[in-house]
Amino acid sequence: MGVYVVTGSASGMGRAVAEQLRAAGHTVIGVDIGEAEVVADLSTPQGRKSAVEKVLEAAEGRLDGAVLAAGLGPAPGPERPRLIAEVNYFGVVDLLTGWRSALEAAGNAKVVVFSSNSTTTTPAVPGRTVKAFLSGDADKAVRSVRLFGKVAPSIIYAASKIAVSRWVRRTAVRTEWAGVGIRLNALAPGAIMTPLLEKQLSTPSEAKAIRSFPVPVGGFGDARQLAAWAVFMLSDAADFLCGSVVFVDGGSDAYFRADDW
Ligand code: NAD
């Protein structure tokens, strides 16, 4: 049985992943701003540093895997773009960078990062915002979406997920990751019924946009099903999976990009 860290373990898909891993007999170290083994605010550098250190201590320096599910969805408010940037991008990259040696120590560790199908279905995401993330500049990323006004949270949300997916693909193939047995992949869900989506559906303008969005199979995804995909991506069956972004979104990505191959 293994030792896994799961961020966002207090709610939604992260919570479902933690439940499924525990039910299979694994040890889970949950990280969340809500109830968790390690309580940390991933929107600040100090919170991320503390999460890195406390998890390394709890895991005794060896992690069989990590699932990075903590995230914030688009919502109104002037502070929202900053929070999305900090949690969705730096709350993945800083943590995984800090845990890399512990993942290497396991010999065959697997990592699943929660991306989103907003990466390929959101129009007009500025390349400079994605670049700002990848160069580690949160201020610049936030500044670059100001002119979008009310839709800035949606734009920076998509940009944070594009950047984190690109970081996954660039990093996955490096010798310090793939070369030492760490399999790093991303899971890109569509609209999944969790508290995050429920909050979005409670805003009339957002609800309208979400409900009219094309989903070929119809309806919303189920958090437990997405968690099962993440658990599968942590299993031996995923030994040959490296740097992939797996879309589980009812067909929306295919609907918009069928010919992008
Ligand atoms: P959720 O809101 O149910 O859970 C997210 C968790 O992240 C919560 O437990 C929350 O406390 C934690 N979190 C938020 N801010 C934090 C902070 N500052 N520090 C520490 N923890 C913090 O959301 P979910 O729908 O389960 O989403 C999981 C992941 O999947 C997110 O990265 C989200 O962006 C992504 N995603 C969700 C959907 C969807 O439709 N639900 C679609 C695509 C991608």
Q: What key attributes describe this structure?
A:
7-stranded parallel β-sheet, 14% strand, Rossmann fold, 11 helices, 48% helix, 261 residues, alpha/beta, binds nicotinamide-adenine-dinucleotide, two-stranded parallel ribbon
Please give the radius of gyration in angstroms.
17 Å
| Spatial strand order of the main sheet | 3-2-1-4-5-6-9
Q: Uncertain spans, ≥5 residues at pLDDT below 50?
A: none
Question: How many domains is the backbone divided into?
Answer: 1
**Order of helices and strands, N to C?**
EHEEHEHEHHHHEEHHEHEH
The main β sheet shows up as: 7 strands, parallel
Mean pLDDT: 97
Q: Enumerate the distinct ligands.
A: nicotinamide-adenine-dinucleotide
Description:
With 261 residues, the protein is α/β, with parallel strands linked by helices. It has a single domain (3-190, 221-246), classed as Rossmann fold (3-Layer(aba) Sandwich). Helix content is 48%, strand content 14%. The chain contains 11 helices and 9 strands. The strands form 2 sheets. It has a 7-stranded parallel sheet, with helices on both faces. Strand 1, helix 1 and strand 2 (27-32) form a beta-alpha-beta unit. Helix 1 (12-23) packs across helix 10. The radius of gyration is 17 Å and the shape is globular. The N and C termini lie far apart (39 Å). Nicotinamide-adenine-dinucleotide is lined by residues 8, 10-14, 32-34, 41-43, 69-73, 87, 114, 116, 189, 191-192, 194-197. This is NAD(P)-dependent dehydrogenase, short-chain alcohol dehydrogenase family.
